[in-house]
Structures are given as C-alpha cells and as structure tokens.
Amino acid sequence: MAALRSLPLRSFTRPAATPLLRRQVHQRVPLPYDLEQGLSPFLSPNALKTIAVDWQQGVLSRLNQLVQGTDAENLSVLQTLKHTATNPTQSLAFNYASEALNNSFFLSTLSPTPTAPTPSSSFSQSLLRSPLKSFPSLISHFSSHVSGLHPSSGAYIWLVTDQGGNLGVLGTYAGGTPLVHQRRQVAGESTVLGEVIPEVVASEGIEASEGEWQTLPPSQASQRKASGGRSGSTSHLLDNMSPLAGVGAQGDRVGKAIHPLLCLSVHPHCYLEDYGVWGREEYVRQWWANVDWKKVEESFAGFTKN
C-alpha cells in the first residue's frame, strides 16, 4: 500500500484577513449603572433590560445589516446618521441610527441615585423666570405633552433650550431626532450607548469634527417632519404653553437653535413590563424620580454660557 502523501503545511494556512473582516460592527456597551439593579422606582431590572439590551441590540443589529457593503459600513452610529440624513434612499438606515442615538440619550440622563435640581443653578433660575415658574409646573406641562399622544405612539419627548436659556418641549417621531440635522450634531459625545468604535476602523470613516457640529434650527423642525418625519412639534414655554412649530417661532424673543437637555421614550415596549398596556401615565410620573438633574444643569450651563 502506497504511503499517504504528506501535504505542504501552507495548504492549511488561514488566508490573510481582508478589509471586509475589519468592517465596523455596532455593539452594545455597558450602561453607566448596574443593569441588574434596575432604576427604582422607574424601571425594574427586566424592563431596563428590554430597553437597554433587547431593544438597543435589535436596533443595532438591523443597522449593521442595512449598512453592510455600503459606504456607511465603517462609520459610527453618529457618523451614519450624519451621512444618511439627506439621502432618501438610505432613510431606513437613518431611522435605525436615529433610534439608537435617541434611546442612548434617554438612558444617559437617568440615574439610580439622581441628584435633585439645584435652586441656584442657571437652569433653575431660567425656569423661575419663565411662565411656568416652578418644577411642578414643568412636570405638569411635560406630562401633558405626552398625554396628547396616541396611545400606541412610538415617540421621544425632549426638554430643549436655546442659547438664550428659553425652554421648550419637543416631540420626535418615526426616526426623528433633534441631535443631528443634515450631518450636523447637537450633542457633544460621539459615542452612544450601543456602539464600540475600534480606533483602526473609526479612523477610516468620515471625520466628525466638533467644530463643525451645530444645533437644529427650530424653524426647520416642522419642515423635517413633513419631508421625512425626522422632527416633531415644539411647545414653547414662553408663550403660555401654546404649541408652536418651533422654538424660534417667536422671532427675536428666542434663539435660532435648540439643544436637548433630557429625553423620555414613550414607546410601548418601555412601559409594558412594569406598567401594563394602559400604564403610560404612571410610567411618565415615575420617570421624574430618576432624572439626573445634575447632567441637565451641566448641559444647560454649557450650552447657554456663551
């Protein structure tokens, strides 16, 4: 019997890595607080897991599938949002990137040990000078904005400000976000809760220079909603709480750009676990107990100081 012929070792050598294997894949990163502890009294551990793990990972997985093989596959979530904002053929990728960013912002303004509002902060002083004049009135006004939504509405409700310190409540729907507008970013962080950006890959994407980031012109909020559902209506706190198309609708009385301070997701999957099908009102009421007002105050001061 003939001896078996030995094959050269190189026949089994693993092929060298190709650029495809280095493709950016968005993955969740840990929350800044303990998932297993939940956010009492607002969210149980299971409810928090649904929002921060199950939902966020599902959004990112679908985003990964959509951008694979496209010029956006090596971009971060934020860069993808900017890159697809003006391209109607990539609207679905925009929507998923927007959802990941919005959900991240919502989670980032929460804390298991939140700080109470500081009466002497510039944010508190600005609120006192507004028609609302108090935190209970702000809570009531914000909650009323949520109550006006359809019971099954998937929306984010935002507290926003302009550079003059004027406050407003903004609703965004169907992939809308005040964080980015036509490749411009509002928030200062380029990483969201839900993405890991390898240095070698991130450097190959579109550069996101903070010097180029601007805020959303509020006069264009309703226009974006009409053209693609990417923004909603704003309720301005300086006009006796009447709904307006944008914070800038009062002309010189307010600024021309808005900045998000905090955000609440009112998607049904957020409250079904703890509050039931018709528990949205109680969900909103409990949310205030875990808002990290220190972050809100720092964000307000940083944006309005100039």
From TrEMBL:
Residues 257-298 form the Manganese/iron superoxide dismutase C-terminal domain. Pfam families: Sod_Fe_C (PF02777). It comes from the Eukaryota. Residues 208-237 are annotated as: Disordered. GO terms for cellular component: cytoplasm. GO terms for molecular function: metal ion binding; superoxide dismutase activity. InterPro entries: Mn/Fe_SOD_C, Mn/Fe_SOD_N_sf, SOD_C_sf. Residues 216-225 have a biased composition (Polar residues). Component of the mitochondrial ribosome (mitoribosome), a dedicated translation machinery responsible for the synthesis of mitochondrial genome-encoded proteins, including at least some of the essential transmembrane subunits of the mitochondrial respiratory chain. The mitoribosomes are attached to the mitochondrial inner membrane and translation products are cotranslationally integrated into the membrane. This is Manganese/iron superoxide dismutase C-terminal domain-containing protein. It comes from Leucosporidium creatinivorum.
